[in-house]
């Protein structure tokens, strides 16, 4: 009987752990990946601020948060950026089940004073007019990259799509109607976090040169795309992509460690012959694609002169 009881208790613990993991995943899915990235970045900056001043970051005192916000405002950060930092601090404290310092009157008054002093105005970019759009399209070359870019900008303009919405479009989201229009179904977007879905109709224009539907058909036919994502990268070298995936995180971590050790002084990258050589090779690898054509033209010109 004792063995059966222990087995049932073990199974119950396993089920409980599984449910806890599922709850954790659901809570993480409540926020977008971009929002979570901003919160993590904001919290790391605040924790670094507290560590440098030897004060507690979790839980943090309201005046510590006020000092942090005042320093960011003095450095020229906008009010909207500071609001994201406040949300990151709040999320960290709520997750750790600690008292939230951002809800205090001191922090609220500090943020209000910052908004009054530096303002919270959002600078909107000027809209892209149809005449400018045609000029942009005319600059695209007559190749695969040009066809893709032409279809992307015309579809994006006609449907007022966000960048994230454009790159997430798949063939299954397209419905070419008999009347010549195109219906695009978005399963999820920034304004539809719960995935209710949204449908947009793209009309066919009389001018085929700037017709978004004709440009999209031309791109799909040229690229041979019948399934999956619509707007894809063209001619991607496999080796650099694999190296970036494998070494990208390691290089970033090493760079951060070097800057931390040196106190933000970039001279640490020129402290030895090996470092100088690696930096020079990196710069040369960036400049070489631009220098080679000029060197080739100079040599040909020298031969003709001789």
Q: Could you characterize the architecture of this molecule?
A:
The protein contains eleven helices and three strands; from the N terminus they run H-H-H-H-H-H-H-H-E-E-E-H-H-H. Strand 1 and strand 2 form a beta hairpin. The chain has helices at residues 2-29, 33-52, 62-74, 79-95, 105-118, 130-138, 144-159, 163-167, 212-223, 238-261, 273-305, and strands spanning 174-176, 182-186, 198-202. The N and C termini lie far apart (101 Å). Helix 2 crosses helix 4 and helix 3 (62-74) runs antiparallel to helix 4 (79-95). The model has no long low-confidence stretch (mean pLDDT 78). 62% of the residues lie in helices and 4% in strands. The chain folds into three domains: 13-118, Orthogonal Bundle (DNA polymerase, domain 1); 130-223, hpI Integrase, Chain A; 248-305, no CATH class. The chain is mainly alpha-helical and 306 residues long. Strands 1-2-3 form a three-stranded antiparallel β-sheet, with helices on one face.
Write the layout of secondary structure elements.
Blueprint: H1 2-29, H2 33-52, H3 62-74, H4 79-95, H5 105-118, H6 130-138, H7 144-159, H8 163-167, E1 174-176, E2 182-186, E3 198-202, H9 212-223, H10 238-261, H11 273-305
Antiparallel strand pairs: 1-2, 2-3
Helix pairs in contact: 2-4, 3-4, 3-5, 7-9
Concise description?
By secondary structure, the protein is mostly helical. It has three domains: 13-118, DNA polymerase, domain 1; 130-223, hpI Integrase, Chain A, CATH 1.10.443.10; 248-305, no CATH class.
């Amino acid at each position: 009987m004792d063995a059966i009881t222990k087995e049932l208790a073990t199974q119950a613990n396993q089920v409980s752990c599984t449910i806890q993991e599922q709850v954790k995943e659901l809570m993480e899915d409540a926020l977008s990946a971009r929002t979570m990235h901003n919160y993590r970045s904001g919290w790391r900056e605040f924790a670094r601020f507290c560590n440098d001043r030897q004060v507690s970051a979790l839980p943090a005192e309201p005046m510590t948060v006020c000092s942090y916000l005042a320093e960011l405002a003095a450095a020229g950060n906008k009010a909207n950026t500071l609001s994201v930092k406040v949300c990151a601090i709040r999320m960290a404290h709520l997750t750790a089940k600690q008292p939230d310092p951002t809800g205090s009157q001191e922090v609220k008054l500090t943020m209000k004073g910052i908004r009054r002093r530096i303002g919270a105005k959002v600078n909107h970019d000027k809209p892209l007019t149809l005449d400018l759009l045609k000029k942009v399209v005319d600059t695209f070359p007559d190749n695969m990259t040009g066809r893709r870019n032409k279809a992307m900008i015309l579809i994006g303009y006609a449907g007022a799509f966000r960048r994230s919405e454009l790159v997430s479009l798949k063939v299954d989201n397209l419905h070419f109607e008999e009347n010549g229009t195109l219906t695009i179904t978005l399963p999820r977007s920034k304004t539809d976090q719960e995935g209710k879905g949204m449908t947009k109709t793209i009309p066919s224009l009389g001018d085929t040169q700037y017709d978004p539907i004709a440009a999209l058909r031309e791109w799909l036919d040229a690229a041979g795309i019948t399934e999956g994502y619509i707007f894809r990268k063209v001619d991607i070298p496999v080796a650099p992509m694999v190296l970036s995936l494998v070494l990208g995180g390691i290089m970033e971590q090493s760079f951060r460690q070097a800057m931390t050790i040196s106190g933000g002084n970039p001279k640490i990258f020129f402290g030895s012959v090996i470092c100088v050589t690696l930096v020079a090779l990196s710069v040369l690898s960036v400049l070489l694609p631009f220098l080679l054509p000029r060197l080739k033209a100079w040599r040909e010109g020298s031969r003709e002169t001789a």
